[in-house]
Write a structure and sequence with these properties.
This is Glutathione S-transferase. With 210 residues, the protein is of the alpha+beta class. It is built from nine helices and four strands, in the order βαβαββααααααα. It binds glutathione. Residues 9, 14, 16-17, 53-56, 67-69 line the site of glutathione.
Length: 210
């Protein structure tokens, strides 16, 4: 099989990169990532590979897939266990991913991903609070599958990859979370793959990359 190469942006701040990266890292498929820092001379590589000139972009032989959700769907064709096996559960998992992909604009704007920082977000307006409440509602649904694992649909799926950047944002900004949400966050934060990504994010920032 051709090598899977995922072009990603800064590990500290590129939430769209983290999503397919985490799915890929959890898939068991052999892969390599190429980190291209925003504003660097190497960004020409992204412009050459991706029709949108954005990260993430997946290169697999002659195939190029740009956009985080499309990349995750492509990976799931190679590693079907990335989606829940049950059709109804899979549909719901896809819906919460689509919701994240096209929604939560206020949360994204006010609580930008910044993995290695800890900061005060300032007052949260009602629009941000409503989006945070919606995240908690999505996460609370996992209680139905708790006997199968700690993740949104029991075992790890693309849905968890899609919400992982939100987990890091809640840590960065010290967002108060209910106990059940805290347990979900811990399950995500304890993933060795996420720990590895976060360690690289810190190294990036320590090296002065912003
Ligand atoms: N909808 C796209 C969003 C991709 C995106 O906005 N990527 C940002 C980084 S997180 C980017 O490459 N920005 C650089 C630019 O716009 O030049 C996806 O889901 O992959």
């Amino acid at each position: 099989m051709n090598e899977l190469v995922l072009l990603v942006g800064n590990k500290n701040s590129s939430s769209w990169s983290l999503r397919p990266w985490l799915a890929l890292a959890k898939s068991g498929l052999p892969y390599r990532d190429e980190v291209v820092h925003f504003g660097s001379a190497e960004w020409e590589r992204v412009k050459k590979v991706s029709p949108t000139g954005k990260v993430p972009s997946l290169v697999h032989g002659d195939v190029v897939v740009w956009d985080s959700l499309a990349i995750c769907e492509y990976l799931a064709e190679l590693a079907p266990s990335l989606w829940p096996e049950d059709r109804a559960r899979r549909a719901e998992a896809r819906a919460v991913c689509a919701e994240m992909h096209s929604g939560f604009p206020n949360l994204r704007r006010q609580l930008g991903m910044d993995i290695s920082s800890r900061k005060d977000p300032g007052p949260l307006g009602p629009d941000v609070q409503a989006e945070i409440a919606r995240v908690f509602a999505i996460w609370s649904g996992r209680s139905r599958f708790a006997d199968e694992g700690p993740f949104l649909f029991g075992r790890f799926s693309i849905a968890d990859a899609f919400y992982a950047p939100v987990v890091t944002r809640f840590v960065t900004y010290g967002i108060e979370v209910p106990g059940d949400a805290r347990r979900y966050m811990d399950a995500i934060l304890e993933l060795p793959e996420l720990r590895a990504w976060s360690a690289e994010a810190k190294r990036e920032v320590d090296a002065g990359v912003r």
